[in-house]
């Protein structure tokens, strides 16, 4: 029994590295920062500002912070795990990244 336990301890999956998840003001700052890096444009060429001119957010017209690896999959709020997307691109698939890839494939055909 103890030997089995030893083997288990040696080969058990590594504990998940906790991804950074931002909330409130920190999340807002991060979101606006990602939007600025993308010049407030989605990859598809659609203008997707972080907020409207009056400072409000419109789900259809404003840009979305899209996670390449979702929170559920262990992804976090890190620059290398997010993309700035317009509503359409973010909503194309559950996994926005996949949607982008399939879009690329279509254009290659
Ligand atoms: Zn787009």
How would you briefly describe this protein structure?
It is built from 4 helices and 2 strands; from the N terminus they run H-H-E-E-H-H. The chain has helices at 2-11, 24-37, 87-91, 96-108, and strands at residues 64-67, 82-85. Residues 42, 44, 46, 85-86, 88-89 line the site of zinc ion.
In terms of topology, how is this protein built?
Elements: H1 2-11, H2 24-37, E1 64-67, E2 82-85, H3 87-91, H4 96-108
Antiparallel strand pairs: 1-2
Tell me about this structure.
39% of the residues lie in helices and 7% in strands. The protein is mainly alpha-helical and 109 residues long. It has one domain (2-108). It is elongated. Mean pLDDT is 84; it is low at 98-109. The chain binds zinc ion. Zinc ion (ZN) binds at residues 42, 44, 46, 85-86, 88-89.
Which key terms come to mind for this protein?
elongated, binds zinc ion, 109 residues, single chain, 4 helices, mainly alpha, two-stranded antiparallel sheet, disordered C terminus
Structural class: mainly alpha
> Which molecules are bound in this entry?
zinc ion
Strand content: 5-15%
Major sheet: arrangement of strands: 1-2
Query: Which percent range fits the helix content?
Result: 25-40%
Task: Give the overall shape.
Answer: elongated
Number of helices: 4
Q: Give the integer mean of the pLDDT values.
A: 84
Report the radius of gyration as a whole number of Å.
Answer: 19 Å
Number of domains: 1
Reported for the largest beta sheet, the result is:
2 strands, antiparallel
Order of helices and strands: HHEEHH
